[in-house]
Specification:
Chain A is built from 1 helix and 9 strands. By secondary structure, chain A is mostly beta strands. The radius of gyration of chain A is 15 Å and the shape is globular. Classes of the chains: A mainly beta (143), B mainly alpha (425). The complex binds copper (II) ion. Copper (II) ion (CU) binds next to loops of chain A.
Chain lengths: 143, 425
């Protein structure tokens, strides 16, 4: 599942990577949005990610806070959230299986088990199921 | 006296050559771009922070435990034949490995011996990461039929007979062992297993606790075996400080070009990153099956499940950690295609001194390793993460030259690199 999501993304960039010759070293697309606040794909939610310590460490387990609100700006405390992701240009998933372990109140959720074992472009995807429906949020990260 | 015209022009040529060389040298100093300098810094041993505590092992940093562990590491009485110790395969003078494709203990093993150096920093131990601490790792070979080939009660008896005082000083009184069979343990062997099952559960637990403590003492010893700076580390230090190089810090043209490939076009640094040159993760790199016929090895796919189920894991009753101190285990990926024939990225420190390479010694030389990365063959199972690199022969040689700059002696108290004094106390 996690693998397939990333493989789909990877395929999208395969053509570009072929042109540049070496997939492992391909540069990420120029116009990537690295914002820490994003609207969900279906427009139901908005979310902000706050990695603990604010910078993204390489090779170390760390925690994030995921702030979740409805499109109208109401905090979402009760939600089923799963975490997925990987490196589109390398065709692999996350090295760990992070989870939302706790709702912290005010729309904040604790994400534990985050780890990035390589430098480069990563994608982290949250699948959210709450009162406003199922939707997903995709974040681009530069490690 | 007038210099001969020939000598004059020779001097001019020499001066010009010198000027060019020093120009080249000053270019060398400025050649690493800001981002590359950060990468160099991240690979340097100076970036290896102090060793994090191991909450699962209460005695991890206890000197008396390390001294006991040193004795146990070299004690061949901890084996079925009385001939095999950890040091049989992990030879201190050889970077704590043995230099052969497949380890040989009581019988031939299915994988290559890994160096012990620096493994206190590893969240996962073994090629497939089936142990999540050094102490849990040490308990694998002791009960393996092909490595030490002994049993759990045998080891408890051996500790009582040969290491009682040192053991009790660290861990407290040994349980009573009278009436226990010489050989019994929860292994596949039917006779030993049967004997184990006939021991009352409470006594089995006491024996397993002694067994776990053997691992914890050995881990306390292994924690003191670390890396020392290599020529590469001194090179980075001088480069970052903008200091001229000395013979001890200089990389020649090929070595420098190899380093540039390593962090650049050859993308080795994707996986061999950080100050130990490993991302502590597992990858399928399409390494071929070994030439000797062995049972199929699926790597991390099995190792991840074994780690989670491990009798001596961080979350087990024998661990000193609280469950929330076991995050690597709690958040481990345990399923998926990516784990098939994925193996732990080895540290590359000292790599040139310890051929052969890969998890079953599939490659005899660094040259063969680099030819493998260049070709990126299809994996025998699962999917290789590698892509062909299309390196020239010269570039492969440069990468190899760079790998040779990573050699350095093991850093450990000198007594720990020798067999302990035989004199019993
Ligand atoms: Cu990657």
């Amino acid at each position: 599942m996690r693998f397939r999501a990333v493989t789909a993304l990877a395929t999208a960039f395969a053509a570009a990577a072929l042109l540049s010759g070496c997939m492992l070293l391909a540069r990420p697309p120029k116009d990537l949005d690295y914002s820490r606040t994003r609207a969900s794909e279906g427009g139901h939610y908005r979310a902000t990610i706050r990695p603990q310590g604010d910078s993204l460490p390489q090779g170390r387990l760390h925690r994030w806070t995921l702030h979740l609100e409805t499109a109208a700006g109401a905090p979402v405390d009760s939600a089923a959230v799963t975490v997925d992701g990987g490196m589109p240009q390398h065709g692999h998933g996350l090295p760990t299986q992070p989870r939302v372990t706790r709702a912290l109140g005010g729309g904040d959720h604790l994400v534990e088990g985050m780890k990035f074992n390589m430098g480069g472009w990563w994608v982290v995807k949250f699948r959210v199921r709450a009162t406003d429906g199922a939707d997903s949020l995709v974040f681009n990260l530069k490690v | 006296m007038r210099p001969a015209p020939l000598a004059a022009s020779a001097a001019a040529v020499l001066a010009l050559a010198l000027a060019l060389t020093s120009a080249a040298a000053s270019i060398t100093g400025a050649r690493w771009r800001a981002q590359e300098r950060e990468t160099l810094r991240s690979l340097s041993l100076a970036s290896l922070g102090p060793l994090a505590p191991d909450p699962s092992n209460r005695v991890a940093d206890d000197g008396a435990a390390a001294a006991l562990g040193h004795r146990l590491f070299f004690d061949a009485r901890l084996s079925g034949t009385g001939k095999v110790s950890c040091a049989t395969c992990h030879v201190p003078g050889k970077d704590f490995q043995d230099g052969v494709p497949l380890a040989e203990g009581v019988a031939l093993a299915a994988r290559r011996t890994m160096p012990v150096t620096g493994t206190a920093h590893s969240p996962w131990l073994f090629w497939d990461g089936r142990a999540d601490s050094q102490w849990a790792q040490a308990l694998g070979p002791l009960e393996s039929a092909v490595e030490h080939g002994g049993s759990r009660t045998q080891y408890a008896h051996a500790v009582a007979a040969h290491h009682r005082a040192e053991y009790e000083a660290v861990f407290g009184p040994l349980p009573r062992l009278d009436g226990l069979p010489r050989h019994a343990g929860p292994v596949a062997d039917t006779a030993w297993r049967g004997a184990w099952d006939r021991i009352p559960a409470s006594r089995r637990d006491e024996i397993s606790r002694v067994y776990a403590n053997i691992g914890k003492a050995i881990a306390a010893y292994e924690r003191r075996i670390g890396f020392s700076p290599s020529r590469f580390d001194r090179y980075v230090e001088a480069e970052l400080a903008g200091r001229p190089h000395t013979a001890a810090s200089a990389l020649d043209r090929d070595e420098e070009a190899g380093l540039r490939l390593f962090i650049g076009r050859a993308s080795c640094v994707n996986c061999h990153n950080g100050p130990r040159l490993t991302d502590d993760h597992f990858h399928n790199t399409g390494v071929p099956l070994p030439a000797t016929s062995l049972p199929f090895d699926s790597g991390r796919a099995v190792g991840a499940r074994q780690a989670v189920a491990g009798e001596f894991s961080c979350t087990s009753r024998y661990s000193d950690a609280k469950p929330d101190e076991c995050d690597e285990l709690r958040f481990a990926v345990t399923e998926g295609e990516e784990l098939v024939r994925a193996y732990k990225t080895p540290s590359l420190r000292g790599v040139a001194e310890r051929a052969p390479y890969m998890h079953a010694g599939q490659h005899a030389t660094l040259g063969e390793v680099l030819a493998h990365y260049d070709r990126a063959p299809t994996a025998p199972a699962g999917h290789s993460e590698l892509k062909p690199l299309r390196l020239s022969a010269a570039e492969r040689r440069q990468l190899e030259a760079f790998l040779r700059t990573l050699s350095a002696p093991v850093a450990a108290p000198a007594v720990f690199l020798r067999a302990p004094d035989a004199a019993p106390r």
